Amino acid sequence: MAKWVLDAGHGGCDAGAVGKNNRREADINLEAAYEAMRLLEKNGETVLLTRASDVYLSYKDRAKIANDWGADYFISFHMNSFVDPLVTGTEVFIYEKGSKAEELASLIKAEIVANLRSKDRGIKEASYIELRETNMPAVIIEAEFLSNEEVEKNFDSKKYGYMVAKACLAFVDKVLLDIPKMNRKIPTREGWRVCVGYYKKYQDAEEEMKRLQRIGIKGVHLVPYPKE
């Protein structure tokens, strides 16, 4: 069991990237983090969100939350943006290559690229505060470009969370299990009979009926069983 800090980038007064049709990066990141948390917890992992609502946190606050909690891994959810609206692709940032963070980043990137059929923009080193000041392997994911109108229209934030959770579980040698809970179907009938046994002799059936009545079970009566 590992301890994962899931960081939904931006929030509050900082909306992050905003698409042409006003879809906000901060909202996508939070929904993805919640979905990843649900799946990781369902598979036995321990999760802490840096933010659970639309609030602002500084980069230092996010790193401090992870360090104070003693997290094993730090995952920051983001979307990308660029002046050219045709640009697409997925990239992941880490502090230093050749580290466990790079292994984790590689799994996450591969999962997103494969599922979104996104352009692979690689794993890149960066000195962002969340990467530099965390005491555990940390990655920042830029899942896709919200500045691209098709991406903005079709991007599924829950699927984003699903892909990240699946990669994280693979990193700790687990296979993601997400079997939906099925509601039991109850057949419709006019009424139902509770049976407690079958007796060939009337005397045996009568004794069982009396025993059940003595222990307080009401509505007990004998019903003849038809001959074959």
Automatic annotation (TrEMBL):
Key words of the record: Hydrolase
Domain MurNAc-LAA: 63-173
Keyword Plastid: no
UniProt GO BP: peptidoglycan catabolic process
SUPFAM superfamilies for the chain: Zn-dependent exopeptidases
A single GO cellular-component term on record: outer membrane-bounded periplasmic space
Gene3D superfamilies reported for this sequence: Zn-dependent exopeptidases (3.40.630.40)
InterPro entries given in the database record: MurNAc-LAA_cat, N-acetylmuramoyl_amidase_3
Pfam families membership: Amidase_3
One of the record's GO molecular function terms: N-acetylmuramoyl-L-alanine amidase activity
PANTHER family linked to this entry: N-ACETYLMURAMOYL-L-ALANINE AMIDASE, N-ACETYLMURAMOYL-L-ALANINE AMIDASE AMIC
Protein name per Swiss-Prot or TrEMBL: N-acetylmuramoyl-L-alanine amidase
